[in-house]
Amino acid sequence: MSLMKRISLIFRSKANEALDRAEDPRQTLDYSYQRQLELLSKVRRGVADVATSRKRVELQVNQLTQQADKLTGQAQKAIEVGREDLAREALTRKSGLAQQIQDLQTQHAQLQAEEEKLTLAQQRLQAKVESFRTRKETIKATYTAAQAQTRINEAMSGIGEEMGDVGLAIQRAEDKTAQMQARAGAIDELLASGALDDVTQVGGGDDIARELDAMSSTSDVEAELARLKASKAPEALESSQGGDALGTDAQRSAEGETR
Q: What local confidence, expressed as pLDDT, does residue 259 receive?
């Protein structure tokens, strides 16, 4: 297959696919119904034209018949007055009218047959159009219901274009949230292990500085504890000496009473 044929085939297939997507069966059915109505209207106009021609022929036949009857009366009157020549002329004209009347009657019969034929065709076409209209509305209703059901099913299953976009957005949000949670957990672990400095802490620095600060804090606690112990020792000694003095006085009082 040549390059041009392949390009032409691809173009036709793409165009056909685009037309399939753009075509709405309901619009196609409505257009077909409209075309059938136009055809039915043309047939009706044809029937009306034939009927008009038939009626015109009927009027001409009636006029010629009246003229023939008039000529018959004139011929009879001419015979009565002894004018045979006039009677012969009137009968000659009547004979010519009779031939015209016969031709018009033949034409009238043909037009009447054509009118009946077209009327029957009109009735059949009208029946087909009405049947097509009923079928068209049924197909349109079925298509609309199927389209609505398809959209509902796509929305419920999430395979529709819009719902698919929403699903992708939700998936991206969940992935991003999981990534942020993992990052926060990793940072917490690094801060707890000391592998990462917490710049928000007062006096923050490296691990050596933090260890020295911890040792300094421990030394301060121990010094404060020793100071508290030292301040308590004199008080305990005074309490002990006061108790011994009271015991001696009591012993002396008891000895005096004995004496």
A: 45
Q: 76 pLDDT exceeds 50?
A: yes
8 Å CB contact between 101 and 40 = no
Q: What gap in Å lies between CA 67 and CA 97, rounded to an integer?
A: 8
230 to 174, 185, 223, 243, 252: CA distances (angstroms): 63, 48, 11, 21, 35
Report whether 68 contacts 97 (CB < 8 A).
yes
Exposure class string for 6-41: b at 16+ Cβ within 10 A, else e: eeeeeeeeeeeeeeeeeeeebeebeeebeebeeebe
